[in-house]
Amino acid sequence: MDYREILRRRSMGCSQRQMERDKLVSREKSKAIFAAADRVGIHWPIDPEITNQELELLLFPDKYRTVNMYVEPDYVYIHKELAKTGVTMTLLWEEYCQKCYENGQTPYMSTQFSEKYRKWAKVTKATMRIQHKPGDAMEVDWAGDTIPVFDPVTGEETAAYLFVAVLPCSCMIYAEACSDMKMENWLLCHVHAYNYFGGVTRLLISDNCKTATISNTRYDTILNRSYQELAEHYGTAIVPARVRKPKDKSHAEGSVRFAETWIIAALRDQKFFSIIEVKDAVAQKLDELNDRKFKQRVGTRRSAYQEEEKAYMLPLPASDFEPAVWSVSKVGVDYLISDGRNKYSVPSNLIGEQVDIRTTSTMIEVFYHGSRVAAHRRFQTRQHDPIVKPEHMPPEHRKYLNYNAETFTKWATAVGPMTTKVIQHFLTSGKVPEQGYKACASLTKLANRYGDSRLENACRRILSYSSTPSVRNISSILKNGQDKLELRKAEPKPTSLNSYGITRGAAYFRKAGEQK
Questions:
Q1: What is the model's pLDDT at position 6?
Q2: Which CATH superfamily is domain 137-312 in?
Q3: How many other β-carbons are positioned within 10 Å of the β-carbon of residue 165?
Q4: 419, 459 in Cβ contact below 8 A?
Q5: Which one of 9, 72, 325, 356 has the minimum C-beta count within 10 Å?
Q6: 251 vs 187: which has the higher pLDDT
Q7: How many Å apart are CA 161 and CA 175, to the nearest integer?
């Protein structure tokens, strides 16, 4: 019986009646062959190495059970068990032998056991399903080609980049268009890919781009800190491909080429004016891609994922990962750090130190030696002034921040009435009170240095002979100790008919008399 020809003609749409007229096989026999082939999962094309005799053994195993002294393995069971983590052919062969011995039957040797399974896998197209275990890994990469985006006003052309993720077992693909390939988009695409698949894989296989690895040598691998945080949040492990070894993520490479054909090339005649339009078009083409029928196996990428892989995916965490970008900065003399848009304060005692900065869309955090020392709500718009917390400022700066007319007046009242008059003079001598803040602050420093009572006496002394006191004069009085001397009563000044007073002194007239 030429089983190969029968199955080939069936794939071409040849009817059972036509095969009977061609004297290839009877209708009853062809019906039994078709039913057995559907039951076992054998479809054309069939590997050329598979003979008709081997096909008959697979289609009708009961026909030879009476003459075969060995127990035929359950290939479907073996295939399903191999998909589980840690299960190997050796383990399954030992379990198969133990079961045969318990029933008093003779098992195949391990080499025959493995060879028979491989032949069955070739015929049933199950090879692809056992090369990668379901839910085991997700491979990611950027596509080499880009999608042009045009500015609707200027017509300027920019590029949209395509992120691709694939599950090697079912070949299910996720693709997303991004405005750039920077860290934030890289992390967000992973989050969206996991949400699209509805689960997380045990491993995450990436390229050696800077958003994934800082260094990948033959001795050790240093992962990007933000990427490592994503892996910890989803409970997966990152295994970067070796440098210049694309075969380590061959499915990602193949899926990238596939996506370039069925997504980028398929959109070549469309013109996009925003990244949102590109994202929507890519999402539509992605669904069409995952619903395309396989050429070498039954079903689609989506059906293969639903039937064979989804049950083995790790569950998603309760909340999505919030992408965070890490950077290093040296604190300047203004005790401020920047996120590229605004400036934020850190404790002033960290001036000159290296700090780690963790930036998210809503928060900016500062770490020093692993401990968080500052946290701010991140502003998305540019602010005119830096965001400074009072507790981060030095005591002098914090005191200056509290400078105002009311505070100075209240302080002067507590010192004494003469000090109050001096403070009022400083606050009212300029056009605005702020012009006198510096003099008022200097007066408070003199009080801290010499005491309130001495300052009050110094203010009384200077007001006794001047209506325009200054900090310099008050400081001189305190330095010389003149505030400790008693004030003499002022003598009444003689009145003069000359409203302008004496213009020439006695010495002038004395010199004039000697000349005569």
A1: 87
A2: Ribonuclease H-like superfamily/Ribonuclease H (3.30.420.10)
A3: 25
A4: yes
A5: 72
A6: 187
A7: 10
The backbone torsions φ and ψ at residue 424, rounded to the nearest 5 degrees and listed phi first, read -65, -35
Q: Give the burial class of 462: count Cβ atoms within 10 A of its Cβ; 0-12 exposed, 13-18 middle, 19 or more buried.
A: buried
Which helix (H) or strand (E) segment holds residue 237: the answer is strand 237-238
Is a pLDDT exceeding 90 seen at residue 243?
no
The strand ranges marked E within 331-397 are: 336-338, 343-345, 354-359, 363-368, 371-377
Amino acid identity for residue 326 in this structure? W
For the chain, domain boundaries: 3-131, 137-312, 325-394, 403-484
| Residue 407: partners with Cβ closer than 8 Å, 6 or more residues away | none
Q: In angstroms, what CA-CA distances link 358 with 324, 352, 370, 513?
A: 6, 19, 11, 90
Range 497-512 average pLDDT: 57
3-class DSSP assignment, residue 164 = strand
Which tokens in the block code for residue 49? 């190495």
CA separation for the pair 328, 342 (Å, rounded): 16
Residue with token string 């295939």 = 79
Alpha-carbon distance of 180 to 142, in angstroms, equals 11
Calculate the CA 441 to chain-centre distance: 48
Dihedrals phi, psi of 183, to nearest 5 degrees: -60, -45
Distance, CA of 211 to chain centre: 9
Structure tokens at 251: 């499915």
Q: Beta-carbon neighbour count of residue 234 at 10 Å?
A: 21
What is the pLDDT averaged over residues 421-427?
A: 92
Q: Which residue has the tokens 């500062």?
A: 366
Token code pair at residue 513: 């008399």
Q: Retrieve residue 505's tokens.
A: 């002194």
* Encoded tokens for 482: 């003149």
This prediction has a pTM of 0.55
Which of 366, 363, 360, 361 is closest to 328 using CA atoms?
A: 366
Single-letter residue type at 394:
P
Phi, psi of 253 (to 5 degrees): -65, -45
Per-residue exposure over 407-416, b if at least 16 CB sit within 10 Å of its own CB, e if not: ebeebbeebb
